[in-house]
Design goal:
Number of strands: 12
Strand content: 15-25%
Distance between the termini: 61 Å
Helix content: 40-55%
Radius of gyration: 31 Å
Largest sheet: 10 strands, mixed
Number of helices: 10
Length: 303
Amino acid sequence: MELRQLEYFVAVAEEAGFTRAAARLHVAQPGVSAQVRQLERELGQPLFDRSARTVRLTEAGEAVLPYARAALAAVAGARHAVDELTGLTRGHVTLGMIATRASLGVPELLAGFHRAHPEVEITLTESDSAALLEALRAGRMDAAVVGLATGPPPGIAAQVLTEQPLMAAVSPGHPFAARRSLRLAALADEPLISLPHGTGLRTAFDAACATAGIRPRIAFEAGDPHVLVQLAAQGLGVAILPSSLAEARRSVLHPLPLTHPAPRARLALARRAEGPSSPAARAFLTHARETFGRQADPPGVRG
């Protein structure tokens, strides 16, 4: 008894005819008939009643059909298991991340996955949040650590890793240095120092300004948050920073909580909503969700 005979038998039973079964299997009809007859000879019983226009299962055929389907399903399961194993031994995972003040545990994440799946190749790319999200949507990337101003965009699913408010930070000699907090509207005419468009922090700040009805005047942009700190410390404007970084640089800057509204930025592990297609990518995302789920909130973000 061969798997091909069982496959042809099931197709004829489901299509109620040899011709339709042959079309479904993309083989010649005589070949289907020959294989089914061979199966009937091996079993010693006719499996189909061929006396009418429509081919019908005999009592023996009815008894054999569930076992034939189970055998084919078992073979398909075995092939799927091998494909999964092959994907994990020869697979490739592409991870993106924004530039951050700290590693956010990504090196430890990659090391742990490598120990579990040493044959899987991993590519790490750094860019801003907008570019990483577009790469995810286009299928060029399996997962990315990104900054988000609100919820994830359409087609993207995300696990929030940390969330923190944005703060204004000024030099000790700035007029705002005498205040304890700052309404967002007070920044309307101030030269601001910010991360560029495409970063989650900038998107969150721009959205808050739109809510407050002001148009921010960005005097300086820099991709490195530490450059923002240095520019503000020189008295060149008001830096917009994640609270963790602003608080950490109190030695050179005066941090001010922003209110009415209070902008917040999120750091998230993002992926395509429909999920990854490769076994390696699925295994990596499971590992990443478990790893990040065990971590405390990481420090401030750039993107």
